[in-house]
Write a structure and sequence with these properties.
The protein is an alpha/beta fold and 365 residues long. The protein has one domain: 5-stranded Propeller (L-arginine/glycine Amidinotransferase, Chain A). Helices cover 26% and strands 24% of the residues. A 5-stranded mixed sheet has the order 1-8-7-6-2, covered by helices on one side. A 4-stranded mixed sheet has the order 5-4-3-18. Strands 9-10-11 form a 3-stranded mixed sheet, sandwiched between helices. Helix 2 links the parallel strand 4 and strand 5. The longest helix is centred in the first third of the chain and has 15 residues. The chain is globular. Bound molecules: 6-aminohexanamide (KQY). 6-aminohexanamide binds next to helix 3.
Length: 365
């Protein structure tokens, strides 16, 4: 069993590695909520299988799944994917899983943040979320990875991006939202990030992706690809509501330096054409009181920045938008010349409110 540790990762010499550093493996959770995933979760399950199989070619994958769906997941996934039973409220491992930190001797520990379903009773996306809030601890237990537990500090893994060399990027829209840590101001939140991620500098974007239901997680608008290198969701269309969000992020980042004093190299990842929920898709989702409705015509927060960096590959969402899909792959190949760029059609994942980065969590080597 893993031990709960007092103190902070920073004080103990631990830091969160960049996602581009070597992985031990990847964690995911099987989707089944019928008030979030249409048609009983079946189309989403197919997409999750494709993501898991793609990643499993490059690193070990563990799929966590409820008792109810255990056999379905086991039968749907290849033998080399480990399937373990784990209670959950939904399938966003990035947000409910542990944030792994590492020291200079290569020792790994976990950080178990408080999870409140992206906003608790104020603007959270479902209730209850107690099973989700246990996932990080259970993952650490399974791996015998000791962990820091923050009972009073709410944070999701999708709301942070690090370079592994002292810099973290976040959005004010999410981290300063009154539904996360209303008693802490920006400085106090920044101190928590420094202590628990082992960083020295926090870069604060104003916004994320337009209409992102997580209060605009940073992992949907930007991705750290290497120290000093980021990929930013972008549009040239000044009439698109995303334009001011991306422009302000670009202007801010070009005027800033990272923790090591470097200017950032910013690659633009043009967002896809609008992804709107169809009538059929809307009708496939069960209406439940207290859960965000999925209405016909609603714009989805679709972005290519929501990719996963695996050992030797980048797994990127595709939207059947010939031009922008191809541009995204080309840009990513330029950024990652030594990794294979694997596109997965991800409409069924974005219909649930997130994308490939949101449903995965890397465990560093
Ligand atoms: O994008 C994420 N990190 C999570 C999205 C949650 C959506 C729930 N409907």
């Amino acid at each position: 069993m893993a031990k709960k540790i007092e103190g902070t990762p920073k004080a103990h010499g631990f830091r969160m590695p960049g996602e581009f550093e070597p992985h031990q493996g990847c964690w995911m959770i099987w989707p089944e909520r019928t008030d979030n995933w249409r048609l009983g979760g079946k189309p989403a399950q197919k997409a999750f299988v494709e993501v898991a199989e793609a990643i499993a070619k490059y690193e070990p994958v563990t799929m966590c799944v409820s008792h109810r769906q255990y056999m379905v997941a086991r039968e749907s996934l290849s033998e080399n994917i480990r399937v373990v039973e784990m209670s959950n409220d939904d399938s966003w491992m990035r947000d409910v899983g542990p944030t792994f930190v590492k020291n200079n001797e290569g020792k790994i520990r976990g950080v178990d943040w408080r999870f409140n379903a992206w906003g608790g009773l104020l603007d959270g996306l479902y209730f209850p979320w107690d099973k989700d809030d246990m996932v990080a601890k259970k993952v650490c237990d399974m791996e015998s990875v000791d962990y820091y537990s923050l009972e009073d500090f709410v944070l999701e893994g999708g709301s942070i991006h690090v370079d592994g060399e002292g810099t973290c990027i976040v959005t004010k829209a999410c981290l300063l939202s009154p539904s996360r840590n209303p008693d802490l101001d920006q400085e106090a939140i920044e101190d928590m990030l420094k202590d628990y991620l082992g960083v020295e500098k926090v870069l604060w974007l104003e916004n994320g992706i337009y209409l992102d239901e997580t209060n605009e997680h940073v992992d949907n608008i930007i991705h750290y690809c290497a120290p000093g290198v980021v990929a930013l969701a972008w549009t040239d269309d000044e009439n698109d509501p995303q334009y001011p969000y991306s422009k302000s992020a670009y202007d801010y980042l070009t005027s800033e330096t990272d923790a090591k004093g470097r200017k950032l190299k910013i690659y633009k990842l043009h967002i896809p054409n609008e992804v709107l929920i169809t009538k059929e898709e809307s009708e496939g989702v069960d209406a439940v009181n207290g859960t965000l409705p999925r209405n016909e015509g609603d714009r989805q927060a679709a972005s290519y920045a929501n990719f996963y960096i695996a050992n030797g590959a980048v797994i990127v969402p595709m939207f059947k938008d010939e031009v922008h899909d191809a541009m995204a792959k080309e840009t990513l190949q330029e950024i990652f010349p030594d990794r294979e760029i694997v596109g997965i059609y991800a409409r069924e994942i974005i219909l649930g409110g997130g994308n490939i980065h949101c449903i995965t969590q890397q465990q560093p080597k």
